[in-house]
Amino acid sequence: MSILFSPAKIGTLQLRNRLVMTPMHLGYSPKGEVNDQLIEFYRARARGGVGLIIVGGCGIDRIGNAFGMTQIDDDRYIPGLRQLVDAVHAEGAKIVPQLYQAGRYAHSALTGKPSVAPSPIPSKLTGQTPEELTEEKIKEVIDSFSNAAKRAQTAGFDGVEIIASAGYLISQFLSPVTNQRTDRYGGDLEARMTFGLEVVEAIRKAVGPDFPIIVRVAGNDFVPGSNTNTESRAFCQALEKVGVNAINVTGGWHETQVPQITMNVPPGAYAYLAHGIKQAVSIPVIACNRINTPELAENILEEGLADFVGMARPLLADPELPNKAMTGETDSIRPCIGCNQGCLDNIFRLKPVSCLVNAEAGREFELGQIPQSAQTQKVLVIGAGCAGMEFARVATLGGHKVTIWEESGQTGGQLALAAAPPDRQDFGYLANYLARACQKLGVEINYNVKATSDMILTAVQNEGFNRVVIATGARPITPSIKREEGVKVLQAWDVLLGREKTGQNVIIVGGGAVGVDTALLLAEAGTLNSETLRFLMLQHAETDQELYRLLTQGSKKITVLEMVKGIGRDIGASTRWSMLADLKRHKVNCLDNHTVLEIRADGVLVESTGDSTQKVIPADTVVLAIGSCSQNELYNNLQGKLEILSIIGDAAKPRKVLDAIHEAYAEGIK
Ligand SMILES: Cc1cc2nc3c(=O)[nH]c(=O)nc-3n(C[C@H](O)[C@H](O)[C@H](O)COP(=O)(O)OP(=O)(O)OC[C@H]3O[C@@H](n4cnc5c(N)ncnc54)[C@H](O)[C@@H]3O)c2cc1C
Ligand SMILES: Cc1cc2nc3c(=O)[nH]c(=O)nc-3n(C[C@H](O)[C@H](O)[C@H](O)COP(=O)(O)O)c2cc1C
Ligand code: SF4
């Protein structure tokens, strides 16, 4: 019997299961309103079987909100909010809004007003200095919280969640780093809790004793000098005393230097934070962050680390995850791979949230169901990378019959390369999902078939294909750099796939994502593996310092050379900083603004863009990571010779997985 799918309560609120969709600010409400896009997004998640939906941050005022945020700061939003509630209720799920005030994380360029905070300490996120809240203004913010909660109740929501995590306003009051007040809101931990507790008390007064209140806390701020799980436990105990019904435990602040939700965070890594809180309170506790499979969720509940499990991005990636888990179809769940490329990176770019693996996310209203074709087409796809497979999946669902020819002996194409560096294995899960989906749908994949134009034309003639899709991807570029004999010159793709071995002194030419990936893979050589680390730690065999050195200092000397300014510029903002920090940790020498002039027997001759000085950097191996070019010859040769011919993914233009998947989806529903 599954614990995850057993009914449970938060206060008076009866839920059909213990899976909670944690809040995501989606950027779907340009004017703060509930609209069809938002309603259909959440309706799909409710239909998918989740127990409770927490609507992503809802602005309680106009000084602490963000772009495209759903607003709950005015009665005029109530009718729209009610429509949202009704849609979710009709699908059997419950729904609460998250009441959001960002404090010094709000940006004046978006709100039009200076941000506010307990103390005027510059924000690491915005670079702006907030205004210190006077006691009078504090009262106004508390009123905004309680008025918003009352509106939520009027709109028919099943409760509210208050955000006291991630470095937003309430966490700013809780932390000694951001709260330097000398009045009753500042000082020791008890005083710093005052604001948060007053918010809860005001809300409780506004909504009455039975309306469920959840508070989202940071299980550890992961900010030097700020609160840890110890202080968070004390806060949660105080929250329980003032009538909070559940605690939602997330990780650290946005400004933390400890990755929170990137691909390198091990699944379920932060469940221990929820457990720490659970040991201190008797109200239900929700564990979250990178809990990306139902099996892991079940395990967390089984081990007693929490009472509920939160998932945000896994439900963006696959709204049907709960239903699929309940019916034993876990292997058809489309996995969230923690890339952030469609979701969080979009928020940083002030764009609405989408998803790399799910082209429908955020477009449920616009797209509806995959249209069923009136006439079944026989389609030949060349290439079983993510573009070819996603096309095949979607076109088959639309009623077509698809055959794929794949040159190699496996599916996934470049996903195998993207998955090769340390902590990037999730790309492999996407490849596995697409291959399984194609297999289940009866897509015929013929391996070890290198298509030529003649073969395609013959197949079209003899086998009756009425449509051909070219999804042949890309190949790495070999630059025309002058080379002397003697230095080993390899392609990054071959190194990543283990087809070629480097020496000990390696220069990587190209500091984009592929160069960074390759450097991180090579930097692992000769470092401690996790099993040995665990053994040495348990035995107290080495000092922490020595273990850190052994984990980060491998056997190779690595230099990354980049012609223009900046390393890893094509990596999304939410992930780039963490990968650059890894390069630094591993002492990878990164030289941007350096052009390679020659590859010589003794190393590489480079010129600095700034002062045009030249030097030779010694190396025994040079690895090329300077980009890729489309494999579009088939398409070019076949143009005009076939009735319906198209080209998708990297074959059309080398880009990213998101582009390949979304383009394939669009082609698939044509
Ligand atoms: C090291 C590396 C890291 C990357 N990291 C990321 C990342 O972090 N995020 C991201 O979004 N993107 C990343 N990318 C880019 C991403 O992997 C590609 O954009 C995407 O996989 C392209 O998919 P595709 O299906 O269009 O092409 P491919 O994956 O190249 O697939 C093409 C397929 O066609 C087959 N094929 C080619 N010619 C023929 C033929 N004549 N007959 C039959 N079959 C043929 C190939 O064998 C291959 O399987 C990375 C790429 C690399 C190399
Ligand atoms: C695009 C995006 C927006 C988010 N917005 C919020 C938010 O408004 N409030 C909040 O508490 N957490 C927010 N989060 C954090 C998520 O609730 C969740 O804790 C995080 O994504 C990790 O969980 P997951 O791995 O299940 O996605 C957001 C996350 C993403 C990716
Ligand atoms: S974009 Fe990436 S991280 Fe975000 S939900 Fe989709 S797969 Fe997950």
Q: Would you tell me which CATH topology of the largest domain applies?
A: TIM Barrel
The main β sheet shows up as: 8 strands, parallel, barrel
Q: What is the CATH architecture annotation of the largest domain?
A: Alpha-Beta Barrel
According to CATH, what is the class of the largest domain? Alpha Beta
Write a concise synopsis of the structure shown.
52% of the residues are buried. Strands 3-4-6-9-10-11-12-13 form an eight-stranded parallel beta barrel, surrounded by seven helices. It has a five-stranded parallel β-sheet with strand order 16-15-14-17-29. A five-stranded parallel β-sheet has the order 20-27-21-22-23. It folds into three domains: 8-367, Aldolase class I (TIM Barrel); 378-475 and 629-668, NAD(P)-binding Rossmann-like Domain (Rossmann fold, 3-Layer(aba) Sandwich), CATH 3.40.50; 482-626, FAD/NAD(P)-binding domain, CATH 3.50.50.60.
